[in-house]
Amino acid sequence: MPKRNSVEEPEKLTNYPQHITQLDSTLSDLLRLVTTNSSADSIQAAFRKARIGYKKIEFIAEYFNPYTAKAINGAAIYEVEEDDPLQKLVPPTGFQVAEAFVFPAYDSINKKALVQEIKLIKSSLNRLRLVNETTAISDRHIFDAMRQQLFRIISLGISGFDSPIALHSMPEAAASVQSLQETFALYKPDLQKISPDLSQKIESTFSEAIAYLQTNTDFTTFDRAAFITTYANPLTTYLAKARDALGIATPADLRAFSSKAYTLFDEGAFNVNFYAPSYQAHLTPERIALGKMLFFDPVLSGNGSRSCASCHIPEKGFADGKAKSIAFDFKGSVSRNAPTLLNAALQSSLFHDMRVNFLEDQASEVVNNTNEMHGSFKEAVVLVKQSQEYVHLFEEAFPESADSSLTEQHIKVAIASYVRSLTSLNSRFDQYMKGDKTTLTTLEVKGFNVFMGKAKCGTCHFMPLFNGAVPPNFAQTEAEILGVPGTTDTLHPELDADLGKFDLYKKDLHKYAFKTPTVRNVALTAPYMHNGVYSTLEEVIDFYNRGGGQGMGIDLPTQTLPPDKLDLNTEEKEALVAFMQTLTDTTGLTDVPRHLPLFPNQVVLNKRKVGGKY
């Protein structure tokens, strides 16, 4: 392992087990320093060395043993199994837990806990070693793992996601890239024969990327935009081209992010069908067209006046501009802010409380909700069948349904298909990342670097989707506890009463937890937060700058957002706002149907308004 295409016998990827052994030895040194009460400086230095050691094996560990990798380097937050009636807390383990004992200053009071974490990491290393002895790793796996690691570095590594206190992100990224360069060396001789120019480009770009990371080590001032566009994007592109030149197969499994894409910013790199419940729900132009008509048609509501577009207005980024949407009877409001539907398909959980996984179920929840649309899919099927135009549209959208193409499920699939088509990933920021350096100003580039660096926004709003879908697989969507207040009173803040995800599973650890929304198109979707408490991006930034609810003085020990103040200055705040405004992209998505299907002999029904009442 890996097995080379040009030879019959497999070749050992010797640097992986060697690096496991070296890391184990480094951890033993750290353990010795802690148990012998050595100086804080020596313990911190040993910890940094151990983390560097892990980064050399991370790309293989994460690819083949993600659960063990999580035990070694997972986020330092407690979890609870959603189906566990006993609500047993699952404590975090690994480097990130240990980091909190060592940085920013080591105190021997943490000695016992630190020793325990080091031993747990060593135990996990043994599992990696055992699995490595029995796992066959093909060339296809190696190239896939290398490229996924580069995507991990781009989106997580340089954001400080897994080094939140020590902020040792750049040296660790350098070590990771060095390990990838070592691995690529196995393929260099063959590639040199086929494409010497490409081989040289890969080698030189690896070396330049490592040098850049080793030279620019300060977390706050590191130019992430320059690193990504100058080194990381070319590397992921060159490795894909090398894979193809060597005749190595590309993984063919359905993924959120295509293994064929050269960079995170390629057109068509993300596949919304990954998040669909089945192949029968995959996109077709006919399903999108039908779903669009249904989305803007109030015929699905209980009073014939309200449509999906009543609360998801195209010109408002498919939100509605209100703190909380108007209720069904146009009296009062619903319980939460209407989120944008742009890129809503690119996540595995929906609604603020993450109560459903598929857009079909989201459509069902909204249409059937007495406070939102107060409709009935069963009644809708009977009514819609009276329109020959709708019947024809359903037959075109679901031709495989011989008995009946107009069913409750097909209505849901059609609406979901339209929402899945509302994917917008070609903003000015994306164009910059694709190589057009004219699309962003100096202030906007600075804002991106602040977003991914000092402000730590990128540790929850993961690039490039800028939502809670965790890279590089984007299969899991995260929730956070921020301590959002009920009002804008900063002198006497009170926690908003909405319990969030707790209402779904009744787990105490989920109290006040809400899904991390996308920041794309955020300039169009004010007001913000699940309760719409903040009217401007400046207010949102101030909330985070204060350390969230805890930082403002709210008693919320389960807050997952660090309560530390960010100390952003005026220019950094302005830059953040400027950057987030570059994420707007509604091109080709805001047009509405010119008419709605007619119903014979239904004068009143045929007067219904496209989009219903807002």
UniProtKB/TrEMBL annotation:
Gene Ontology MF terms in the entry: peroxidase activity
Coiled-coil spans in chain: none
Cytochrome c domain segment(s): 286-423, 442-584
Sorted UniProt keywords: Heme, Iron, Metal-binding, Oxidoreductase, Peroxidase, Signal
Compartments reported by the entry: Cell envelope
UniProt main location, coarse: other
Protein name (record): Cytochrome c peroxidase
Superkingdom of source: Bacteria
Pfam families given in the database record: CCP_MauG
